[in-house]
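User: Predict the structure for this protein chain, please.
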Amino acid sequence: MESEKSSGLVRAIGRWTLTALVVNSIVGSGIFGLPSLVSGYVGRWSPLAYLIAAAIVAVIMGCFAEVASRFGESGGPYLYAREAFGRFVGIEMCWLVWLVRLTAAAAAGNLFTNYLAEFWPDVSKPVIRLAVLTILIGFLAFVNYRGVKSGATVSNIFTVAKLVPLFSFAIAGGVFLLQTHPAIRSVAPTGGPVPLRNWLEVALVIMFAYGGFEGAVVPMAEAKNPRRDAPFALGTSLVTVAVLFCAIQYVVVAILPAAAATDRPLAVAARQMWGPPGAVLITLGALISVYGYLSAQMLNTPRLTFALGERGDAPALFSQIHPRFRTPHVSILFFAGSVWCLAALGNFKWNVLISAAGRLFAYGVVCAALPALRRKSPDAAAYRLPAGNFIAALGIFLMLVLVSRMQIGGWIVILVTMAVAFVNWLWARNRTVVKG
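Assistant: Here is the predicted structure, written as structure tokens:
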């Protein structure tokens, strides 16, 4: 079992820092736009939709908690799949997760410039936009290049900074509803029942909102006690985020009966509560949230290519550790450069498509890894998920149901990614296998 530390890295991520990293990896740009989309699918049932999606994610996170607690090295889902099912599946998983995280980070950078245009219209000019992206991404690359402690500190700061305005919005919205509607405006739906098709579609959409935690478990070689802290961080983060998302959705649909008609639901709702200053505050919150999300990706995603190189599944260049700062500096610079290139292209919709589709496959493989790893190492010192085999089977079933709702574009992207991973495997299969 690959559970020992990766040579040369520093274990500096404690329990609460890991929890903050998981929250930061989940709460990104989606919460500022998805309330409209979710409302369009199921109307005023949308707060319940977030609870149902949270229950689905809890099944997946439960499997992640047990599987992650078995390992103390970098790699996350790539490492789990490689140990459970072999080198080929591991490489396929790594490319899939890396692409999902890469495009999510690139879209976050692009979305930041879109929001910034509210205050600085000239940022839409190509040269200025590229300069802003260079500063945004370059600063985070510099911070993480110099050490995991500084990268983790930045992630912690942004986690707090993004949660304060979001929880303030939810609390202020509740007070506003109590003052203007003493009985609290009902969010019960009007009209006929919501079709099952809509519930499946909205579950797929909300999985994008809850996604991202799979990236936060990648840097376990730099966690102080991954066996103890991974289950705690995942569980605490899910409860926190689920409460936040449900509260925000409730406020939005209660204040905005036609929430589906706007692409900036929180800003519009804030304007009704506080006037123009409210919209400005929420826009600032969006900027902080998006950049905080980008900081989390810069911390955890480079550890995927580091793990590939460390095990001989990619050129050893990616596994190099800086002699002074003890960070995987080559992987960090490679990821930062890739994010900059994709952010310059600025295709946010493409990111959503890839992220939503790719996560389903990644989650399904991790669920399948749980019983496989139990059979392989039944006495491993790890967290034991109650009824783990049943929950893993349930997770696989739920992912298959949601996969059935994927569009043709999602399938094309997944198949292309798997083809690239297959070429990587052809390169790596005759090379010496490192660490298993």
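The mean pLDDT is 82.
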